[in-house]
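stuck on this chain:
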Amino acid sequence: MFLAKYDPFREIRSLQDEVNRLFTSSYPAQGGREDVMNAWNPRVDVFENSDSLMFEAELPGMTKDDFELSFENNMLTLKGERRFEKKDEGDNYHRIERGYGSFARSFTLPPTVTAEGAKAEFENGILHVSLPKREETKARKIEITGTEAPAKTIEAKTASA
């Protein structure tokens, strides 16, 4: 009969080997496949002010011709591609950490915004998009009219002993 020695760390080492294999094959210089690049999506901040819904997307190393922006059926879509270009055929990359490839980001917008009057500006690798709120949905201050009620006077009565 054969007795196997129990190793409590065997499963942890096996998991670590799987994770290492996963990350090693995703880097072209280590895995040997230049056609596989890190998938990426640009980071986007979404915020609003009293007049507009604002988007700011990070698109480093890109030009405005590398992506497109569209608004359809209350959906804002940003899509494009950041290409990996070798500087020189003699270059031997040891690590590629920046993401490259095609991307698409879509944002469902509330019915309170409109594409009419929308503005988009690309500067220093940041895309700024402003979508105005519809006039009928903007908060308004409501003035209260009428007369003020006269102040009531309370007579103080003293108790006599």
